[in-house]
Amino acid sequence: MPSRLRLRLLAPATAAVLLPGCAGLGLDFGSDKAVTPDAEIYRRAEEGRNQGLEREVERLRADLRHAEEAMVAIESGQRGDHTRANAVSATAESRIAVERASRAAPWRTDEIADAESKLEAADRQLQAGHFGSAVFFASRAHRVADALDREARQVSGARNVRYVRPRRLNLRAEPSDTASVLGTLAQGTPVFAERSEGDWSLVRTPEGQVGWVFTPLLAEG
Q1: Would you kindly state where each structural domain of the chain is located, as residue ranges?
Q2: Among candidates 36, 101, 55, 60, which has minimal Cα distance to 206?
Q3: Which H or E run includes 196?
Q4: pTM for the whole thing?
């Protein structure tokens, strides 16, 4: 049998063997595009969510370690290790860190409020003469600020970052003002502009949300 004829006869059988294995790779031989362009956007969004969770887990673990150390100190009778000067210094340093973080990441209103509440607790403990407790709460506030600083640096280093201009901006499922609203973004929230369609931009947030916003309502820098 001529070699060309053998190849033509073998081609269907070969395809039958290869196609099932290729299906697991996400390839689509019936279309021009193997993977939708938005797949990578959602992958980056998931990566952003994971990074945020890792920062939060790291902070909570540090809080737990500090709490355990405080409990050991109390039970071992070392409650007097922290002086008033230590507590005053720790509270002042934490306040500076929280103020810096609130300027760097103003979109994180809940986290900033949490850090400020811990500073208030540190002040109360300081006034009551509980210097160890004051240092404990001040340190927790400082760790919240550090996590916000890391996120702010990540945002500022992105080339496609934009910021929400109005007080509130709807994040929609499709590029249309009649599309369903997936959520709302506060003024100053950074978003990563992935692609555009007319007057609309597909964006993702540092928290991993993905949706469409009206492009003129975004600002650069």
Answers
A1: 38-156, 161-220
A2: 55
A3: strand 190-197
A4: 0.60
* In this structure, CATH architecture of domain 161-220: Roll (2.30)
CB 199 within 8 A of CB 162: no
Q: For residue 163, is it left (φ>0), alpha (ψ between -120 and 50) or beta?
A: beta
DSSP, res 33: -
pLDDT digits (tens, 9 = 90+) for 64-110: 666 656 654 553 344 546 788 989 999 999 999 999 999 999 989 99
| Amino acid residing at 60 | L
Written as one letter, the residue type at 131 is F
Quote helix, strand, coil % in the chain, to nearest 5: 60, 15, 25
The rounded distance, in Å, linking the Cα atoms of 72 and 68 is 6
97 Cα distance to chain centroid? 19
- Helix axis angle, 84-104 relative to 109-127, nearest 10°? 170
In terms of DSSP H, where are the helices of 31-108?
38-75, 84-104
